[in-house]
Amino acid sequence: MNAQVLIDGIVRQTTVLIAQLATSGGVRAPLAHIANQVFLELAREIESQGISKQVSADMFGLALRSYRRRLHRISESTTDQDRSLWEALLDYLGKSGVVTRSQVLKRFHRDDPELVKSVLHDVCESGFVFRLGAGKDVAYRAATPEELMQIGQRSDGFDEVVWLLTYREGPLAADALASRLRVAEDEVDRSLARLVAEGRVQAVKGRYSTRSVVMSPTASAGWEAGMLDHFQAVVRTLCARLGASAENEPSPHIGGSTYSLRV
């Protein structure tokens, strides 16, 4: 098997998926941390396979000392990731009510004014922000969650991701869920409270679980969790097939074919 060709192909298709997700529905998700996150996750997974740090460093083309130093630096900063200008501007508008363009430019004075204006135009065209007035007196207001639902914008679908994780890996405590999702525990607590109130998740002695997860194909929120579940299922199947190949004992229950039907 030409592993390099296979790896290159998977990386290429994964970047296509990430690019689509990062721009889906008018969103401009921050990507500055992606390179470091990929390096850290890949290094951890390689070491979990029983590979030594020395060999892992060699696989990345790094000296052992440089490899250790990079891992240490990235691990310290993974929970404090920078936001994109798009996300920071939306957060500012959401907390400030109606603000003029001059106020926005003053708030983001360290950024290129033309870039700030371009992002302002983008969030307005995407429906996340309302433009009021024109010319020098133009002002902006972030749309409320209720208004976003009325105009068809999706919610973030975070509850559905938490719901999925409790199904696939539960029972789990709130801190374990927060650790897996790499978000603040209070955010997970609020999500779990909503899920429990809706009867989608059960809590027993501080641990959360559920017997089923059903995602509606027409729901405006939650498709992210369904997509993640599909992707994880594909990855697990491929990893099982690779494991069977490595042991020279291919299982008849782990296939490698993709069937297409033309209607």
Which features would summarize this protein structure in a list?
Arc Repressor Mutant, subunit A, 58% helix, 12 helices, globular, 263 residues
Shape from CA axes?
globular
Report the order of strands and helices. HHHHHEHHEEHHEHHEEH
CATH superfamily of the largest domain: Winged helix-like DNA-binding domain superfamily/Winged helix DNA-binding domain
How large a portion of the residues is in β-strands, by DSSP E?
5-15%
- Name the average pLDDT: 79
- The first-level CATH class of the largest domain is given as Mainly Alpha
State the domain count.
3
Which structural class matches the secondary elements? mainly alpha
Write the layout of secondary structure elements.
Blueprint: H1 3-23, H2 34-48, H3 53-59, H4 64-77, H5 85-96, E1 99-100, H6 101-107, H7 113-125, E2 129-132, E3 139-142, H8 145-150, H9 158-169, E4 172-173, H10 174-181, H11 185-197, E5 202-204, E6 207-209, H12 223-246
Antiparallel strand pairs: 1-3, 2-3, 4-6, 5-6
Helix pairs in contact: 3-4, 5-7, 9-11, 9-12, 10-11
